[in-house]
Structure formats: C-alpha cells, structure tokens
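$ fold --in a.seq
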Amino acid sequence: MLKVKSKDGHDFDMGKSWIENGGTVAVGAEANIAKLAEAASSYGFIDINPDADGTLRRALLIIRYRDQDFFPSRALQTIREYEQIHDQEIAAYISENGLERMRFGKHELLPSRDGTSLIN
C-alpha cells in the first residue's frame, strides 16, 4: 500500500480515506480447511457481495482486515501465482479519494475507489 500525495501536499490517513470512500474492512475471517491450507502456495480472501437485485456485478479485489493491513482477493492471488508475479511487483496506491490504481506485475489495474471492479 502506497500513499498518493495530495495535490496540495498535505498528509492524510490512508485507513480513514479507505473507509470514507467505501472500502471494505473485515472484522473477522474464517480459516481454510487445514489440508487445503497446507497445500496452498498462497492465500487470498473470498467475499461475495451481490447487488440489491441479487446479481453479482462487482468483484472485490482488495480488503482491509480491521485496522491492520490490506489483503488481496483469491482471484488476484491466482493470477499472481499463474504469472509468477513477485511481491515487489505489486502495489496499491491510495489517495484521499480511496484506491487510485494497482500495479500488478505488468498489469495496471484501475478499480473503483472502494477496491471493486466490474466483472466482465
């Protein structure tokens, strides 16, 4: 997570910006089945949030756990493993207006400021 400088140069709280712009904050987590966790090469969260009509239109790419850290979705982790993207090649940029963009290996992602992306 990298902070994007504000236009006037003043500092801001990334966590507060995340929340104020609709970013999801998880308060709990359910662990994987032990046998699956032991065999996994990485972890990512799964969270499904359908629209009011029950249709799933957006995928959540990044989530914050409590006030601690941000975590990628299982979908992003799958792509990271498949394309062998190193941790140093991943960055999420948060501005005062929420998530601005993500660098994911050779990909430049432009999700919504709340960390979601429309499903194609």
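$ fold --in b.seq
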Amino acid sequence: MAYSTKRRFMAGAVCPRCSKMDSIVVYNLDGKDFRECVSCDFKEEMRLNIAASELETRVNHNQQHPDDVQVINIISPDNKD
C-alpha cells in the first residue's frame, strides 16, 4: 500500500516508543512507506506483506478424501398385488 508523499496523521495510532496516541504520521518517500512520531524521534520504514492467503477452514476446504465417499444403494420395493 503506497501512501501519499504528503504526511498524514493516523487516527488512533499509538507510538511504540513514547506510547502517545494520535502522534503518528505516515508518508511515502522514494517509493518506501514510513511512519514517524511527531512527539519523539521514532521513525520506521513499513514493510507490508500484501500477498496473504486465506486460512484454510472446514468451510473453504475443497479437497475430497477417498475415505469420505460412501456408496448408497437405492432399493425399490417389489410391487406385489
């Protein structure tokens, strides 16, 4: 996620060094994203890992195991009068 070159405050963000709320600004400089505290000398390059995959759950699990297959025989009753 590329931020603007203009410095913008992150609402509700807390500085990891001085613990002050609403003192973090984010900006882009030379193609790199940074976050910086305006209250202390904290500055850090942000490296975001965008290629996150969806966690596998029983709902989105698509593999069918051979043990899960069951054969069903349909028995029709004889028509006797």
